[in-house]
Amino acid sequence: MASPVYEQLLTVQDLDLALLQYRHRHANHPIQQQITELDDELATYQTTADEISGRQSELSAKEAELASEVAVIEAKRAEIDAKLYDGSVTGTKDLLALQDEAEMLVSRQSDLEDVELEIMEQVEQVDAELAPVTTQILGLLARRAEEEGLLAAALAEIEQEISTSETLRVEAASPIPADLLSHYESLRDDLGGVAVARLVGSTCDGCHMALSAVSFDQIKRQGDDALVNCDQCGRILIR
Question: Considering 152, 173, 194, which residue would you say is the last residue of a domain?
Answer without folding.
Answer: 173
